[in-house]
Amino acid sequence: MFGIQNHKATVSNEAFREAENPSSLVVHFPPDTPLVMDAGLTISPFSIAYQTYGTLNATRSNAVLVCHALTGDQHVANAHPVTGKPGWWSTMVGPGRPIDTDRYFVICSNVIGGCMGSTGPASVNPETGKVWGLDLPVVTIRDMVRAQAMLVEHLGIETLFCVAGGSMGGMQVLQWVASYPDRVFSALPIATASKHSAQNIAFHEVGRQAVMADPDWNGGRYAGRAGQPVKGLAVARMAAHITYLSEGALQRKFGRKLQDRNAPTFSFDADFQIENYLRYQGSSFVDRFDANSYLYVTRACDYFDLAADYDGSLARAFLGAKTRFCVVSFTSDWLYPTSDARAIVHALNAASLPVSFVEIETDKGHDAFLLDEPDFMATTRGFLESAARARGLSGGESENSR
Amino acid sequence: MFGIQNHKATVSNEAFREAENPSSLVVHFPPDTPLVMDAGLTISPFSIAYQTYGTLNATRSNAVLVCHALTGDQHVANAHPVTGKPGWWSTMVGPGRPIDTDRYFVICSNVIGGCMGSTGPASVNPETGKVWGLDLPVVTIRDMVRAQAMLVEHLGIETLFCVAGGSMGGMQVLQWVASYPDRVFSALPIATASKHSAQNIAFHEVGRQAVMADPDWNGGRYAGRAGQPVKGLAVARMAAHITYLSEGALQRKFGRKLQDRNAPTFSFDADFQIENYLRYQGSSFVDRFDANSYLYVTRACDYFDLAADYDGSLARAFLGAKTRFCVVSFTSDWLYPTSDARAIVHALNAASLPVSFVEIETDKGHDAFLLDEPDFMATTRGFLESAARARGLSGGESENSR
Question: Could you confirm whether domain B201-297 is CATH 1.10.1740.110?
Answer without folding.
Answer: yes
